[in-house]
Write a structure and sequence with these properties.
Blueprint (H helix, E strand, L loop, with lengths): L2 H5 L3 E5 L1 H10 L15 E7 L2 E8 L10 E3 L7 E3 L4 E3 L5 E3 L7 H15 L3 H14 L11 H10 L2
Antiparallel strand pairs: 1-2, 1-7, 2-3, 3-5, 3-6, 4-5
Length: 158
């Protein structure tokens, strides 16, 4: 990755539920909320290997080995699940999240965004993405999505 790419801010996006369901049908490690649950799938958009990868944001993860996620502010502001990131080849399948400061989640996401971009956790994020992606090319890690396979399926999604 060149320096220009590294300096670019990382955005929060909301991912299309039908796309998530499609990928989940190909790999059960794709994080999917139960049907009917109003929870939105909010992810951090990370450019890796010239592909947009979407890594879900979640609450602090106490029992998962540290190599799979990155805590935001020691977990006080949640975590980024790098092991569950998904490839996305069309920007039509997600939309940038606007921080609604009238809601508690708006304030939380704004704090998360600042911790990631202003206080610069980007280098740590890209390092972990590269490490996990490259160490799981054979797709044998049961805690990670099967990214090579998902890339092939994602290209076919319509």
């Amino acid at each position: 990755m060149n320096n220009k790419t590294r300096r670019k801010s990382l955005d929060f996006v909301e991912v299309d539920r039908k796309y998530l369901s499609f990928l989940h049908s190909k790999d059960s490690n794709v994080q999917l909320h139960p049907v009917g649950k109003e929870t939105k799938y909010i992810a951090l958009r990370i450019k890796f290997n010239n592909i947009d990868y979407l890594a879900p944001l979640t609450h602090k993860i106490p029992n998962l080995p540290k190599k799979y996620f990155i805590d935001i502010s020691e977990g006080k502001l949640g975590s980024i699940k790098i092991n569950c990131m998904i490839p996305c080849f069309s920007s039509k399948l997600y939309k940038k999240v606007k921080f609604d400061m009238k809601t508690p989640y708006g304030h939380l996401m704004k704090k998360q965004w600042v911790k990631i971009n202003v206080l610069d956790k980007r280098k740590e994020i890209w390092g972990k993405v590269k490490y996990l992606y490259n160490s799981n090319k054979l797709e044998k890690d049961t805690f990670c999505c099967k990214w090579i396979s998902l890339e092939l399926h994602a290209k076919k999604y319509k």
